[in-house]
From TrEMBL:
Keyword Protein transport in record: no
Residues where Mg(2+) binds: 18
Taxonomic lineage from the root: Bacteria, Pseudomonadati, Campylobacterota, Epsilonproteobacteria, Campylobacterales
GO MF assignments: kinase activity
Cofactor(s) the record lists: Mg(2+)
Catalysis: reaction(s): shikimate + ATP = 3-phosphoshikimate + ADP + H(+)
Residues annotated to bind ATP: 14-19, 118, 151
Subcellular location(s) of the protein: Cytoplasm
InterPro entries: P-loop_NTPase, Shikimate/glucono_kinase, Shikimate_kinase/TSH1
SUPFAM superfamilies in the record: P-loop containing nucleoside triphosphate hydrolases
Protein known as: Shikimate kinase
Protein EC: 2.7.1.71
Protein's gene: aroK
Length: 165
């Protein structure tokens, strides 16, 4: 078992990063943070509104700023946005857990309402291409991969606790 300070969850939209990060924070005594929520709070706008008003490029720069800040933190359980994997210092933040699931599973898992909150999920075929384009990157950045299809929260937490403290 490895002792780590920060743990962060990466993976495609809908894989359950926020749910697991929040639950694991409570379970392990860490502080829960969510990169999307931090950016939304700062601008007092939703991710969709930020994309519409300022564009994706702007959002990505804010993600990088958030990453730079997060490298100075200790004891957090961090949910990231699906594209946060592209920040340049991901490995400096902490132990990276990739929540893996197939595209069709994720697509079914997200309700229409949840999809509508995600500008990059509005066009399903584009989202599918993005999924395939990112797969290798998620795997490369992961310190641990958890298969999440049809796994409940409890079993994922149990799996995590076997690996990290
Ligand atoms: C994005 C994923 C979203 C959010 C934004 C962009 C992406 O987060 O950061 O809409 O590029 O995959 P979730 O993965 O939490 O949906």
């Amino acid at each position: 078992m490895e002792k780590v300070e920060n743990i962060l969850f990466i993976g495609f939209m809908g894989c359950g990063k926020s749910t697991l990060a929040r639950a694991f924070a409570r379970e392990s005594g860490r502080v829960f943070m969510d990169s999307d929520a931090l950016i939304e709070m700062q601008f007092h706008l939703s991710v969709s509104e930020i994309f519409a008003k300022f564009g994706e490029e702007f959002f990505r720069k804010e993600e990088q700023k958030m990453a730079d800040f997060l490298t100075h933190t200790k004891g957090i359980s961090l949910a990231t946005g699906g594209g946060f994997v592209n920040v340049k210092n991901l490995d400096k933040i902490g132990f990276c857990v990739y929540l893996r699931a197939g595209f069709d599973f994720l697509k079914e898992r997200l309700s229409e309402k949840e999809k509508a909150k995600r500008p990059l999920f509005l066009d399903e075929e584009k989202a599918r291409r993005l999924y395939h384009a990112r797969l290798a990157l998620y795997e490369e950045k992961a310190d641990l991969i958890l298969e999440t299809e049809n796994q409940n929260l409890e079993s994922l937490i149990k799996e995590l606790k076997k690996r990290i403290k």
